[in-house]
Every structure is written in structure tokens, then in C-alpha cells.
Amino acid sequence: MRLAVLAAADPLDVRTWSGTPYFMTKTLQKKFPDLIPIRVSRPSWFKFARRAASKVTSGRIDLGWSQSLARRHAREIARQLKAERAGTVISIANSSISAYLGEIIPMIHVSDATVPLMSNYYGEFARLRKSVADSAWQLDIQSVLNARECLYSTEWASQSAIRDYKADRSRVHTISWGANIEHRPALQPDPPEDLCHLVFIGVDWERKGGQIAVDTVNLMASRGHRVMLHIIGASPTIPKSDAITVHGFIDKRTEEGRAKFDTIMRQAALLFVPTRQDCSPMIFPEANAYGIPVITTSTGGVPYVVEEGVNGFLLPPEAPPEAYSNIIWSIWSDQERYKRLRRSSQARFEQRLNWDSWLESAAPIIQSVMDSTR
Fold first, then answer.
1. Domains 2-178+355-373 and 196-351 share a fold
2. How far apart are CA 93 and CA 19, in angstroms?
3. Which residues, including other chains, have CB under 8 Å from residue 44's CB and lie 6 or more apart?
4. Burial of 154 from C-beta contacts in 10 A (0-12 / 13-18 / 19+)
5. H/E segment holding residue 211
6. What top-level class would CATH report for the domain 196-351?
């Protein structure tokens, strides 16, 4: 019997969920070469029906979190898996489809959060009507309780599954995710010391704390510090500043995009993302792969990705630009300290924050489920 993997869309499409299913699937194929990627596709009418149902009911019904549809999708996927001779399936952050799949076929649940964590944290979940939020909760808890094993990216998420869903502690595992990059960057030389290049990466400008980053850099520039902020992902409307360059979205699927991104990262001193809400930020391991330390916020699952003084520094959510300015300049102005931080950041990537390390820990758990179902 073979192993299958499914996500909310095509797991072999690097555009699916910031590339995480893609890189996870590619890594799994190293150990399980006959792995079956399952492309979950909703009917063509689904998005229109979902929008109509939400509008007619003033948001009280969301077909994306429908328990009856989840059961139907579980049966459809199970038939597809059996036709492919798949005996075990890995479901990546896909509770709205796979909640009841574990009742039919042995399943491994992979995610970076639980609905209880998201409900009072992410704005899009906080705005859900109670009926929809309750349905989302039920689908997620069924995914966890029906799974043979649960693999979470942070202890923040693992403890929620145990606490909020009463999941069996022996079936809940914390394994750090890797950097979503095709090739590991070569050991980078230290960036030029005459200008402190900071990089902000994020499409969701407000959630990632973009304005705080801008205010911090403008404050540093007003104090005479030689600093430059590179903004990647978002294209915010902000006053023009000699200390800020807006690159906008960079498509790393193209050779031109990869080259541009690589050039920016090779000269970067620090990744500066004062995020407001994050579960398991994928850009942090990617920065560490380049030897770039991270300046960010102690929130959500971030403290389980960034360790204080090892691969970056975390400030409290209420920290003002003044506090970020002070920590950034204290690190950059002490070049010996900064170079040690670069070395330990890249070491953290090499030892823990890469997909091969994830596979090393996950493979025995996956194999044990496969063996027990034969």
C-alpha cells in the first residue's frame, strides 16, 4: 500500500499555501518515492455557490466549512485513494476537506495551528459568524481526533490540540518546518558595513507590521543612522523616503525574480518583520538559510521559530518603533556580536529549520502508521 498526500489545492503547485505543501511533498518523495500527490479540486460551481450562500444568509452559512460537504468530499477522496492503492494519507492543513477522511483511511494530520488559536487571533477568523466558527471548530477537531498521528510545526499549536481538543499527547508531535527554497544558499560573506540593509517581506501589510517597520526606519534615519529598508511583497502607499525602497511582489518562480530576490538577500543585514499575527512564518527559516538574523515579535508560533539571541530577537507586541530602533542598532553597531549572530542563525537553519531535518523526524512516525495498516 502506498502513501498519499493532499492539500487544499495541488500539493505540487508551488503557489499552494506559500509553497509549504510543495516543499513538504518534494521532501517526502526522497523517503517515499512512490508517494501519490492528490490534487483536491472543488466543483466549478463551488465558489459561486459559496459566495451566494454567504450573501443570502448574511454570513451565517459558509460552504467552505460545511460538515455535510466535508463528509461528501471525504468519501470522494477515499474512493480516489483506494483506486490509487493508497493505504495512508497525509493531509496538510486541510480540515475543511479531510475532517472525516480519517474515519475511512488511516490519516496523518499536518498543520501549524488549531481553530481555537485562530479564532481570537487572526482577523478573518474573528469575524466569522458563530455558526460558521462552530462548524470550523468541529471540522478541525474531527481532523485531529480521527488522525492516527498529528504533526504540528510549533509547540504553540501542539499544546492547543492537546488542551483544546483533548488529543492524545502521544499522538501529537512538534516538528519544525523548513525553508521554502529550491536550493540551499552557499555560505554568505558578511554584508557591507557602511549601510545597514533591512528587509521586510510580507504581502499582508498590516498583519505583518509593515507600518511599524517604516516608522522604525524613518526614526533611525532621522538619528543619522545609515539604514535602508527593502520592502518585498506589499506595495504600500507611504511617503517617499531615501531610506526605503519598495520592490513590491517578486515572483520567485521566474529566473529574473529569483535573481532579484537573491541579490537583495545577499546584501541584507537583518530581516525585519514586526508581525502582529503569525503561526509558523516560512520566511524566517529562509532568511536564516542566508545567515540573516530576524527581528520580529513574540506572538503566536513565532517564538518556536526564532530563538532569542540565536537566530534573531523578539520584542513584545506593544513595542514601539523606538524599541525596534534600539535593538537593531545595538546589534549592527557591534559587528563582532552581529557576525556571531549570523553564524548561529545559519547554524539554526542547517540543524533544524530545513525540510530534510523535518523528514528525519517525521519519516519514522509516518512509516509506523503505514506499517500498522498493512
1. yes
2. 13
3. none
4. buried
5. helix 210-222
6. alpha beta
- Please name which of 296, 277, 276 lies closest in space to residue 285, comparing C-alpha atoms: 296
Segment (H or E) for 130: helix 130-146
Distances, alpha carbon 98 to alpha carbons 4, 87, 141, 209, 352, in Å? 13, 15, 11, 33, 29
Please list the residues that pair with 143 across neighbouring strands. none
pLDDT at position 182 = 86
Amino acid letter, 171: R
Task: Supply the pLDDT for residue 64.
Answer: 83
CATH code for the part of the protein at 2-178+355-373: 3.40.50.2000
Give me the residues paired with residue 151 across strands. 110, 173
Cα-based angle 64, 68, 73 (whole degrees, multiple of 5) = 70
CA dist., res. 298 & res. 314, Å (int): 5
DSSP string covering 294-331:
EEEE--TTGGGTS-BTTTEEEE-TT--HHHHHHHHHHH
Residue with the three cell numbers 545559519: 346
Strand partners, 86: 2
The whole-angstrom separation of Cα 46 and Cα 54 is: 12
Spacing of C-alpha 131 from chain mean position: 27
Which residue stretches of the chain have pLDDT < 70? 187-188, 374
The secondary element (H helix, E strand) that includes residue 232 is strand 227-233
Predicted pLDDT of residue 51 = 86
pTM value is 0.93
Sequence-distant (≥ 6) Cβ neighbours of residue 226 within 8 angstroms = 194, 195, 196
Secondary structure class of 120 (helix, strand, coil): coil
Set of cell numbers at residue 104: 475511512
pLDDT in tens, 6-19: 998 889 998 888 89
In the chain, where the domains are located: 2-178+355-373, 196-351
Per-residue pLDDT of 345-358, as tens digits, reads: 999 999 999 999 99
Tell me the C-alpha distance between 38 and 129, whole Å. Answer: 31
Quote the radius of gyration of the chain (alpha carbons, Å): 22
